[in-house]
Amino acid sequence: MQGKKICTTRDEQKGEISDTFIVRDRLYRIVGIECDELEYIEAWHLLEGFETPEQFVEMMMEFYPTLVSDDTLYLHWFAYVGPIPGV
Question: How far is it, in rounded angstroms, from Cα 38 to Cα 73?
Fold first, then answer.
């Protein structure tokens, strides 16, 4: 919500490119999806909103305790569309 994050990583694909989703009162659109192993995705830590790769990996391990460095993860790129229509 602070405008620092433009992607989110999950252990499975959570939609398709052009799908929209709501966070609080804001509408976002998925603009890209790529998959790779954790050890490569951690390089995107700044775009995920973390200061270091270690912080990013620590958070991912909290969400997915059995995660190992060569597990495949999905990086979902998104863009702010605007406020939710009618709200």
Answer: 6
Contact 2, 65 (CB under 8 A): no
The CATH code of domain 7-83 reads: 3.10.400.10
| Domain regions of the chain by residue span | 7-83
C-beta neighbour count of 74 within 10 angstroms: 17
| Cβ proximity of 84 and 26 under 8 Å | yes
Say which DSSP state 84 is in. Answer: P
Strand partners, 23: 26
pLDDT one-digit tens code per residue, 1-47: 455 578 899 999 999 999 999 988 899 999 999 999 988 888 888 88
Read off the pTM: 0.81
Residue-wise DSSP of 50-67: -SSHHHHHHHHHHH-TT-
